[in-house]
Each structure stands twice: as structure tokens, then as C-alpha cells.
């Protein structure tokens, strides 16, 4: 007995009911769970220490997890126990400091650093938030400073231990030069450790006084660490270095100083044993900004010193003068102080070179001088601004400066002020604030905005795009706002990334139908020198109904797959017999074949490129080209573009668009395996090209524009305008990158 087509239909129907029964319960359960989750009726407890939790379970309401990393302040607000939470957070922060200090003393540097890492900062933020809502005074500043100093101390100690191990190895290997260099590095680290420990002790004292906690154990542990460093460094200094003494003469009337009237004094530099450091170029760091001055010593270690203050605060009454040995020197640094009174003077900035006109991305060079009278200023920094936008900080060397910088997009177009200024955090310095200003014209740069929109489901449109320059190398522009509009409503504003790209998922209103969605992106160019730009596209309708195929497949029980497999096996056997019968019937002269004038039934398809309703009767048919074993030649593509040009001249914009679309599609098909997909509608081809690795955003946007125009030409009785056709022809020439050649005409004539 041969099974009929009805038998196959019955079996396939049974298969469908099995799968529906299996998935229906899963989907319903999933929907119920999601609703409960949205209502807040399901608590999910995930182990925060497991980076890949296998599943989530409902939390036990009676279980208390004292190590929870995510305390919820709102729960404590509702219960009125903010004070209790503040106490818990205080205890936790103090315990982190205690444990970190103990671990540092034990040499557990990595663990000690983890005590004051991001988790400490998160809990500190919670503490400040809660403590600001309670009646008492909070100590967030002290906790922050203590955590910062403890982290800094831990890092310095870790670096010291590493360098100390390298130093011991260098001595053992007989590498005295390397050992000496490491000894200098160790001496610097030892100083950092000493200073950090002093600041940390102060923070501990503040916390103990304000919170009544006991940090004595942490104090003791830190002091033990510093004592070990002091002991090691004392031994290293005895082996590697010689201590020095610095004296500076105090002369009557020399304490009144300014940049115009500098400190002029003399002194001597010797070892502690009285041996002069003779005939050397020595370096001093002077004042709180460690301004550098070089001078020469004589045979007896004496020297003359001239110092012109620049950034010294006017409130300074004592200048520290520090001798800093050069790398490789056997001497240790030493310092002394000089009593002074500082007066301010105003320098003069002069701009000597600057551009008259600039545009976005241009490299502009600015140079000039800084001086007080005829005396050049050295060792300070100036700020270059354009339209009050900081461009660069330039260093002044011997009274001169020169720097090249790029023009950012944030500078408005038009005539703007280019300024070079000297300024400090406060104005009370030895050099007063000053500036030079010159006019510079900022040109507006043409922009380009590309965009594509894809329906991910019935509720969301994925918008991707790029904002950049329309000229040159088409560089992307970062940190610019782009407004996304869905239909006629503004959906949201996104900001471009470093390469000018942007991406956003836009929600579709629940009241909207499931049809195509018009998406528009706009860049206003406000407060910038980049011209405004717009892009518009359509997100085609999708058949997705909100449940992803993956989620449905995963929800099917195992028993359903077994039953479905049995039914599929039977259906294949019966279907195979039926297929062999139908294959035999295919030889009948009454059987329908696609493309031969006999329909096979069903809904009529959209016309595809293989059978376009072209208005050009003389054009070679697209179906012939598509069915050929080889891709259309460049000559065919060029000829189709030439034909499009003729149609445009004849005032036939739709025919122009159709020829352009065929040329572009032929060209793109050669890049993505033109024989692989058979007959496709224009939107099916668009999606195939979009999903192919060779596609790029710019060409995809161009294909979208041309496809839109092709659809209007074929299906919309209003058609395209002449300007539409001109734009499509320009896009097509750009994509195909071809020009009409005489050899093409000869080749086509021969064919």
C-alpha cells in the first residue's frame, strides 16, 4: 500500500501537536516566572564568588549571609535602621584596614592590597550615603584618605621588596653598577614608604578620635613594616653611599626676592667627613615646586647660587634647598633652608606663530616667548586655548615655546580667540597670571552620517551608525551627540565612540503595528565646527513575535524530542516514496516550472532582480545574467551604468534607478558568491549582503538607499524624482567604481 499525501499531512500534524504540547507549558511557565520576577515576588540568590553560576535558586528568607557584597540601603531605610547599617559599614571598613595592615606585615602584599580595592570603595560610597542621612557626623573623608594611603603604602612596600631582591641578586652576581643603581631606587622607595606611613598614622588617629574604634594593632603592624625598611636601607646606604652636608650663607638684605630680583647667595657642599665635593656640576631642587637649578662647585666644594622664583607662593617664608645627586653618584642627598620674602612680577607672553585659518583635525603650530623684561622665563608651563577650549599644555624652555596640536570638534566655527596663558591653581605666585590673545578663523567641516536599522523583534529596533568627515580619509568623530528618531518621535540621544560609531536599541511603542519602521538619525552640530547631518532609513518588519527560536528550542522537554524524532523518521520514509512518485510525474508536459509561464500556486512573490519589471526593453535581462554560470563581466556593469546615464538624460528616473540597482547588485554578488542563493527579492539580497563578512557599514547604507529607490521604481506608482535618480546614479558609480571605456562597447557589440 502506497501512503498518500494525506498520510504525510496527518503525521506532520501529529508532530506539530507534540512540539506544541511540549513548548506551550514551557513558554507559559517562563511567562509566569517573568511576571513574578517583574513584580518582585521572586528573590534570586547567586554566589558572588562564582564567576560562572550554573543556575539561580530561590533565596531562603531565613538565611543570613554576612558576606553579602551588595547591601541594599533601601531595605534599611524602609525598616528605619539606617543607624544599624552605618555601624555595620563602619565596622567593615575598619576591619579591612586592620586585616590589610596585618597581611602587609606578614608579607602578603597582594592580599593586603585587595583589602582596600574596589570593594572597599563601594562600601565606602554606601557608608557616605547612609551616614549623610543619619544625625551623627560621618568620617567618609578619613576612611577614603586611610584607604588611599594604605594602598599607596602597600604598593611602595611591594615594589621595595621586589627591588631589594634584585639588589641582593646583583651583589651576589658581582654586578656592582647595577646594585648601585638599585640602591638609589631603594632609597627613593624608602622615602616614599616613610612619608606614606606618617600620613597613614595621621588618618588612623583621626578615625580613632571620630569613631572610637581601635586601630592600635594596625598602627603597630605598619610601624613594624617601616622599621624593617629602615633597617634594610640603613645597611644599603652604609655600603653604597656617602652622606653629605650642605651650607648656604645668609647675607643681609638677600631675603627679599622676586623673579626680577633673584636670590643670590653662596655655599659649600661636603661629605660628613669634611671631604669637599669638588669640581662637579651639581643639581638643586628649590621650593615646594622643586624648581631645578644647576651650578658648579670649586675645588673646595664652594659654589654660587642664583635662583629666580616662578611658581613659589607669595606666602612662602622659608625656601628648602635640596642637593640631588645624579644617578651613579656615591653621595646621598641633603638639604637646608633659607629665609625669604617673595614678591610678584608680571611676565609678558608673545605669540609669534599661529595659523590664520584652521578646521577640524588640522594640525596647528603655536610658538612664542615668555619673559620678564629682557630676562627669559624658564621651567613653567603655558596653556593654549581656542574658543576657551584647552588644546595643549606647552613647556617653556629658556623663554621660548613651540607646540603642535590638533583642532578638536568642540571649537565652534567662526572667528575665535587663540590664547596662550600662564595660570596657576591660585593667583598668589611669584609670577602673576598673564595671557596673549590672537584671532583665528575656524572653518566648518562637512559631515557625513551613515546609519542602518534592523528589527531585532516586534519591540526593538537596533540602530547602528557612524558620524565622520565627508572629505579626506573619512575619519570618525568621537564624543558627539546623535539623536535617534523613530517615526516622528525622538527616541533617545546616543554619543559616538572613539571611531565615530554609535549603536542603540530603540523600543517600539506598544501601540504600534508590526509594519516597517522609519528611522532617522540627526546630528545638530551645536557648539562644534562640524556641519549638521541627517540620515534616514527603514527597519523592515520582522516575523519575530517576541519569543526567540533559541528559547523555544531549549524549553522543549527531552521526551518530546524522542517522540518528535520517531514521527520525523516515519514522515521522511513516507515522504520519500511520495517524492519519487512526484519526480516521475515531473516529466509530464502539464507540470508547472518556475520562470516558464506556469505558476506553481501559492502567494505571488515580490519581483526579484532575476525578473525585474524593467522599463528598458533593450537591456540584457537580469535573469539571464543571474542564471549564467559566470558572474557578469565589468563590461556588463559599466554598460548598465551607461544605460542608466542615458535614461537620466531622457528624463526617465525610474528606468535610471532600475539600471543602477542591477549594476550594483551584479557588482556586489561577485563579492559574496553570486551562484549561492538563486532567485532573491531585493530585500532578501539586502539581508544576505548585510549578514556577509565582506559588507561594511558605508556600502550597506548605500545599498539600502539604492534598494529603497528600486522599490519605489518598481512598486510605487509615484516613483522617483530626477534628483532621486541622480543621487542613486552617483551612489552606484561609487560602489561599482567603474568608468565607461571604448573597449567595453566593442566587447558588448561583439557579444
From TrEMBL:
Keywords attached to this entry: Membrane, Transmembrane, Transmembrane helix
Composition-biased stretches (Basic and acidic residues): 66-78
Composition skew (Low complexity), residue ranges: 611-634
UniProt superkingdom: Archaea
Signal peptide per UniProt: none
Residue ranges of the TM segments: 558-576
Residue segments, region Disordered: 42-79, 581-634
Domain Protein-glutamine gamma-glutamyltransferase-like C-terminal, chain residue ranges per copy: 660-733
Protein name: Protein-glutamine gamma-glutamyltransferase-like C-terminal domain-containing protein
High-level lineage: Archaea, Methanobacteriati, Methanobacteriota, Stenosarchaea group, Halobacteria
Amino acid at each position: 500500500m502506497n501512503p498518500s499525501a494525506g498520510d504525510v499531512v496527518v503525521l506532520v500534524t501529529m508532530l506539530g501537536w507534540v512540539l506544541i504540547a511540549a513548548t506551550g507549558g514551557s513558554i507559559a511557565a517562563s511567562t509566569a516566572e517573568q511576571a513574578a520576577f517583574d513584580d518582585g515576588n521572586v528573590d534570586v540568590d547567586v554566589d558572588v564568588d562564582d564567576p560562572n553560576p550554573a543556575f539561580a535558586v530561590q533565596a531562603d528568607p531565613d538565611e543570613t549571609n554576612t558576606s553579602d557584597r551588595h547591601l541594599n540601603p533601601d531595605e534599611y531605610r524602609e525598616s528605619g535602621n539606617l543607624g544599624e547599617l552605618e555601624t555595620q559599614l563602619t565596622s567593615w571598613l575598619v576591619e579591612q584596614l586592620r586585616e590589610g595592615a596585618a597581611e602587609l606585615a606578614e608579607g602578603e602584599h597582594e592580599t593586603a592590597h585587595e583589602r582596600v580595592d574596589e570593594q572597599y570603595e563601594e562600601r565606602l560610597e554606601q557608608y557616605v550615603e547612609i551616614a549623610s542621612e543619619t544625625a551623627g557626623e560621618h568620617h567618609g573623608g578619613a576612611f577614603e584618605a586611610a584607604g588611599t594611603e594604605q594602598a599607596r603604602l602597600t604598593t611602595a612596600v611591594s615594589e621595595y621588596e621586589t627591588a631589594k631582591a634584585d639588589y641582593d641578586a646583583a651583589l651576589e652576581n658581582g654586578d656592582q653598577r647595577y646594585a648601585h643603581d638599585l640602591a638609589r631606587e631603594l632609597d627613593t622607595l624608602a622615602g616614599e614608604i616613610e612619608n606614606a606611613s606618617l600620613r597613614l598614622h595621621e588618618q588612623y588617629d583621626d578615625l580613632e578620635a571620630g569613631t572610637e574604634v581601635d586601630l592600635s594593632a594596625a598602627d603597630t603592624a605598619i610601624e613594624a613594616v617601616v622599621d624593617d625598611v629602615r633597617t634594610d636601607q640603613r645597611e644599603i646606604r652604609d655600603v653604597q653611599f656617602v652622606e653629605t652636608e650642605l651650607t648656604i650663607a645668609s647675607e643681609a638684605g638677600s631675603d627679599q626676592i622676586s623673579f626680577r630680583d633673584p636670590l643670590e647667595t653662596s655655599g659649600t657642599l661636603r661629605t660628613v667627613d669634611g671631604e669637599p665635593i669638588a669640581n662637579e656640576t651639581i643639581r638643586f631642587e628649590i621650593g615646594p615646586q622643586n624648581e631645578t637649578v644647576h651650578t658648579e662647585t670649586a675645588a673646595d666644594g664652594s659654589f654660587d647660587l642664583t635662583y629666580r622664583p616662578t611658581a613659589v607662593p607669595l606666602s612662602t617664608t622659608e625656601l628648602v634647598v635640596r642637593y640631588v645627586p645624579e644617578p651613579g653618584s656615591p653621595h646621598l642627598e641633603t638639604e637646608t633652608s633659607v629665609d625669604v620674602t617673595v614678591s610678584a612680577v608680571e611676565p609678558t607672553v608673545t605669540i609669534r606663530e599661529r595659523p590664520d585659518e584652521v578646521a577640524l583635525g588640522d594640525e596647528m603650530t603655536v610658538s612664542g616667548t615668555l619673559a620678564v623684561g629682557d630676562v627669559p622665563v624658564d621651567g613653567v608651563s603655558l596653556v593654549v586655548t581656542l574658543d576657551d577650549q584647552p588644546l595643549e599644555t606647552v613647556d617653556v624652555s629658556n623663554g621660548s615655546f613651540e607646540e603642535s596640536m590638533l583642532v578638536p570638534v568642540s571649537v565652534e566655527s567662526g572667528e575665535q580667540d587663540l590664547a596662550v596663558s600662564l595660570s596657576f591653581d591660585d593667583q598668589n605666585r611669584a609670577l602673576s597670571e598673564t595671557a596673549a590673545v590672537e584671532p583665528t578663523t575656524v572653518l566648518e567641516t562637512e559631515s557625513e552620517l551613515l546609519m542602518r536599522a534592523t528589527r531585532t523583534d516586534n519591540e526593538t529596533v537596533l540602530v547602528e551608525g557612524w558620524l565622520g568627515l565627508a572629505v579626506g580619509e573619512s575619519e570618525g568623530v568621537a564624543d558627539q551627540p546623535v539623536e535617534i528618531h523613530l517615526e516622528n518621535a525622538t527616541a533617545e540621544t546616543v554619543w559616538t565612540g572613539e571611531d565615530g560609531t554609535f549603536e542603540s536599541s530603540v523600543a517600539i511603542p506598544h501601540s504600534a503595528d508590526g509594519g516597517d519602521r522609519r528611522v532617522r538619525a540627526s546630528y545638530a552640530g551645536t557648539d562644534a565646527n562640524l556641519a549638521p547631518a541627517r540620515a534616514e532609513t527603514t527597519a523592515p518588519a520582522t516575523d519575530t513575535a517576541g519569543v526567540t527560536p533559541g528559547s523555544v528550542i531549549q524549553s522543549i522537554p527531552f521526551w518530546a524530542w524522542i517522540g518528535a524524532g520517531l514521527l520525523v523518521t516515519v514522515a521522511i520514509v513516507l515522504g520519500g516514496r511520495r517524492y519519487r512518485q512526484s519526480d516521475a510525474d515531473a516529466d509530464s508536459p502539464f507540470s508547472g516550472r518556475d520562470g516558464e509561464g506556469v505558476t506553481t500556486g501559492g502567494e505571488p512573490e515580490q519581483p526579484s532582480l532575476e525578473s525585474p519589471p524593467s522599463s528598458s526593453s533593450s537591456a540584457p535581462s537580469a535573469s539571464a545574467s543571474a542564471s549564467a554560470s559566470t558572474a557578469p563581466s565589468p563590461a556588463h556593469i559599466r554598460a548598465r551604468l551607461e544605460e542608466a546615464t542615458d535614461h537620466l538624460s531622457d528624463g526617465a528616473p525610474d528606468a535610471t534607478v532600475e539600471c543602477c540597482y542591477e549594476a550594483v547588485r551584479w557588482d556586489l554578488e561577485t563579492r559574496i558568491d553570486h551562484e549561492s542563493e538563486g532567485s532573491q527579492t531585493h530585500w532578501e539580497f539586502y539581508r544576505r549582503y548585510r549578514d556577509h563578512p565582506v559588507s561594511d557599514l558605508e556600502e550597506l547604507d548605500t545599498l539600502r538607499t539604492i534598494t529603497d529607490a528600486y522599490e519605489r521604481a518598481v512598486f510605487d506608482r509615484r516613483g522617483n524624482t530626477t534628483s532621486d535618480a541622480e543621487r542613486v546614479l552617483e551612489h552606484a558609480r561609487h560602489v561599482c567604481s567603474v568608468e565607461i571605456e571604448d573597449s567595453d562597447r566593442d566587447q558588448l557589440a561583439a557579444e
